[in-house]
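WP5 quarterly update. Target: Alanine--tRNA ligase. Source organism: Kosmotoga pacifica. Length: 871 aa.
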Amino acid sequence: MRYMTSEEIRQSFLDFFKSKNHTVLPSASLIPNDPQLMFTVAGMVPFKPIFWGKIEPTYPRIATCQKCIRTVDIENVGKTPRHHTFFEMLGNFSFGDYFKREAIKWAWEYVTEVLKIPEEKLWVSVYKEDDEAFEIWKTEVGISEKKIVRLGKEDNWWGPAGPTGPCGPDTEIFIDTGRSENCPDVENCSPACDCGRFLEFWNLVFTEYNQDEAGQLVPLSRKNIDTGLGLDRLTAIMQGVETNFDTDLFIPIIRKIEELLGVKYREKENQDTSIRVIADHSRAISFMIADGILPSNEGRGYVLRRLLRRAVRHGSLLGNKRPFLHKISETVAQKMGTIYPEVKEKLRLIEEVTLKEEERFLENLEKGTKRLWQIINNKGNLEGADLFMLHDTYGFHVELVEEMLSDRDISLDKEGFEKLMQEQRERARAATGNREYGVISTLNKELYEKLGGTEFLGYEYLETETEISAILKENELVDTLSESEEGELVFQKTVFYAEKGGQVSDTGLIETSTGTAKVFHVHIPYQDMVLHRVRVIRGQLKKGEIAHLVVDKEKRKATARNHTATHLLHAALRRILGDHVKQSGSLVEPERLRFDFSHYSPLSLEEITAVEDLVNEKILSALAVTIEEKSFEEAKSEDVIALFEEKYGDKVRVVNISDFSRELCGGTHVKNTGEIGLFKIVSETSVSAGVRRIEAITGNETLKYLRDLESLREDLKSMLQVSEKMILERVVMLTQDLREKEREIKKLKEKLLSGKSGSDDHEIMIDGTKFFVRIVENAPAELVRNTADILMQRLGNGVVIVFDKQEDKVLFVVKVSKELTQKFNAGQIARNIAKTLGGGGGGRPDFAQAGGKEVNKIEEVIQSLEEYVRI
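Structure tokens (predicted):
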């Protein structure tokens, strides 16, 4: 067995199976096209539709090196030799082509003849009832019967993934490491023993059955092969090292960590654990960001954020307090960029996202850790509210807290935490509002069954005539709607655009021979049936009448301008910021557009200007906006932007803006970008972690915006009595003058507050100690504290209490001389007084602050002060 680099091993595997007529495919994304999975967790994931029989295979034989993410054992990463979050899986696959014989014999050939692992070190396991596999190993490969171990379903059976589906036995190849120090029975040790001596490195799965709902196994008409050979584990074998972290896959990264953090690997075990965690997570972080995942509080983004913060925390355990993780990305790209070019191409993005997240978390790490231990020292456990506070205030995920306390017997109320998190989600949902027309009623379903869908003519026409098919009033069918009444109308066809895809609905008029109604909202409650919510403004509308439908032309045009502008904005953001930008939501109204998108940091003024300039450049170029109808599958295969979380029909509309933008969209658009007019971004804000929001205006709204600015400028000129060029200079001068005056006022207030004794001062002797009490009104908190300091300096030795009376509450501070803190405790005095004043507070033995609502009880407290100062 010769030493091989990881690059040589990877290439030798793919070359070997290429020689066996396998098509070698590149790795699929870490984001699977599978709603059941968050990540690609194995080499077979991209081929699940083939295994499930949903699609026909393009190639009967395939070989890949697939990048994978698994986080089920994240707590063990760094503590064991072989647990990882990111890893590579070598695999060969057959879809109804070859089966057990070829899979077993080729695996043996590759292991013994290409890798040249000595046969005497190899053992295999088979499913205990799989006589066919046993015989192939024994008779055709020639392995001694003693070295073929029969094991049960828990070891040598794969699937199904759910209660039903494809499944089958598997066979595994092991290497005897020779390490038998943990074995209770060295003489009879085999892969059946869990002592760790035998290391499994290749699993060959024979998918030959389908398990039905009754649990019965039915033979598949087309049998498949799915194998998984872990590159990290195999590299450790070929390089003769004890752990995967000692291979050339990790050593360059570990050397970089040593350089950045000033530590040495293999010196201290607890230090080594942190180095291994950082090395592992840095690879996962780079690959996840390269595949378009950004840190967030949900889904894949939550996992990424968890890995980032876990790595940063382990950096802090090594004594580091500065961002460092982003600097490891280049080492990852250098090592992995040849086989996975995306980590090189996206290196700048990976570094920027990682740095921003590091900076954000480091700000809170020290404070949060301090707060965590304060709670533990006070309570001895963590309640749901504590976990929620640590999560909400400091960004400490529950898993991070669990790990920080893993060596202590401290209970965590995770159920209470989840309840509070759910309440927060519900409050957020409630804040977005819930329109009653979104509810699917039984009546709507019955109407659809009777009348069918509504044909939309609004792409070509803004007026049409059609019969009123049905009238609804308060969710009941009626025959008429009279003046001032509201209801909903159903037609066989319409020119009114119904609200969907972020675009608001059209408004307009509906006229019949007997009445007129104003359309103020149009929506789709069920399937493709359109309801027109109206208010009758003249006469009455009757079921069966012919109605004239007229869309408000100016509002439609304004909405179309803004909708096409969102497509230009999306394309411009991807050009300026990078193709990690993805739409996260939008709102298109006649007056404005709102566009939410994935991005890791606020846009700089330069970036906003560049986006604005690019959009306006495309508007001035008067680019043609064309619409194509295609099948959804055809559109997916082309370079068309789509929100694949959305539901699309068999036929989709592709909106093309020259060669600048191509998106799936059902909305209304201008025919030429020149119709949009001037585009202006009015705000750029955060929606949530990893999601930004731009609001912008076009057309007449931009003209109004500029006129408002012009009016403001004229008002400023008049108020300041200066020319336009001098406005800024004059404002700066006034601001400086104002600050100087504020400083003077503050000094005067301090003088007044800390001046000689007055009618609101009280000097009281308690147990030989002088208490000085002062009452002030509506003073800033900082001045109240300063007043207490100055009064204490004058007093020299004693206790100072300053009450600050405000309109509906009282705030106060208590200051005790250092030498008197054994006799009087400021924190306890503050708590005692606050109870009487209907509030709370506390602090240190020498200084405390508190407050209450019962302003009228201050004199009562002062008269009975002795009752409040006892410890």
